[in-house]
């Protein structure tokens, strides 16, 4: 193909022509909206570093879930802020914990909405780590049993899917066998298979009140320098029974999304995380970028890299912009 015989601009002349040859599309049907649920009633507390996002109570989160569904977004992922924290994070698997209550309320009011739950301990432990401690170290194997309990409690409350985000070794297998033993073999696991120890989670840690009280998460989350290791993590999770493989964060790791898309046949999800959202919001608030266009281009890029599903705080805005 040589100029002047071949002229790529021919197919860019009109919007209709560009649409005909468009390779990737963005649709609300690919999106998952994260929701933060806290104790109380009538709560709608803005999250400073995530403009447009709130902490909800069980009563108000139901209305929010309805709005999400009405916009054509098919799924939400729930995060909980417990009444009280302890070293084990025991509120995480409480039958009447805030997430368990929210699952029941949302499934009752909006049965068609897919309710995914984040399975982790960091919002529930007093020390803020994603597992239980043994001498200031996160104890991998002791944590597995607790994660399985959390996932089971979510399934029992009616969750459509569970999403472990803790990065303990072996957690997908532990959760899968516990769910199967208890008759929940039809509840899929979306594994945060490739989750990096990222600074882009900053605003989320404020929103979910889950910053580690000492140290950091580098002994369990992945080193941002590694790509081949992502294949090992994803293989393990697939072998252990994951139904969907997630990469997190999204935009700084588009190469990893592409790698998983090429190497695996499971659906790939990408989490466009709080810091990615906050950067766009902050620059747009200063008038430095066009928020809607940057949002749509970002989400489209994540799809183009190979993500089937995108978890994003922009889900509602994007659905409106795409309508
Ligand atoms: C919990 C969890 C985190 C996020 C999702 N689940 C925080 C963390 O690992 O520190 C981050 C999401 C975001 O930044 O939007 N383990």
Automatic annotation (TrEMBL):
Active site positions, chain numbering: 195 (schiff-base intermediate with substrate), 248 (schiff-base intermediate with substrate)
Binding site for Zn(2+): 120, 122, 130
Record-linked InterPro entries: ALAD, ALAD_AS, Aldolase_TIM
GO molecular function: porphobilinogen synthase activity; zinc ion binding
SUPFAM superfamilies recorded: Aldolase
Enzyme Commission number, as recorded: 4.2.1.24
Keywords: Heme biosynthesis, Lyase, Magnesium, Metal-binding, Porphyrin biosynthesis, Zinc
Pathway(s) of this molecule: Porphyrin-containing compound metabolism; protoporphyrin-IX biosynthesis; coproporphyrinogen-III from 5-aminolevulinate: step 1/4
Catalytic activity as recorded in UniProt: 2 5-aminolevulinate = porphobilinogen + 2 H2O + H(+)
Binding locations of 5-aminolevulinate 1: 205, 217
Residues at which 5-aminolevulinate 2 binds: 274, 313
UniProt keyword Ubl conjugation, yes or no: no
GO cellular component terms given for this protein: cytosol
GO terms classed as biological process: protoporphyrinogen IX biosynthetic process
Highest taxon listed in the record's lineage: Bacteria
Binding site for Mg(2+): 233
Subunit structure: Homooctamer.
Similarity section: Belongs to the ALAD family.
NCBIfam families associated with the record: PRK09283.1
Protein name: Delta-aminolevulinic acid dehydratase
Species for this entry: Dissulfurirhabdus thermomarina
Protein encoded by which gene: hemB
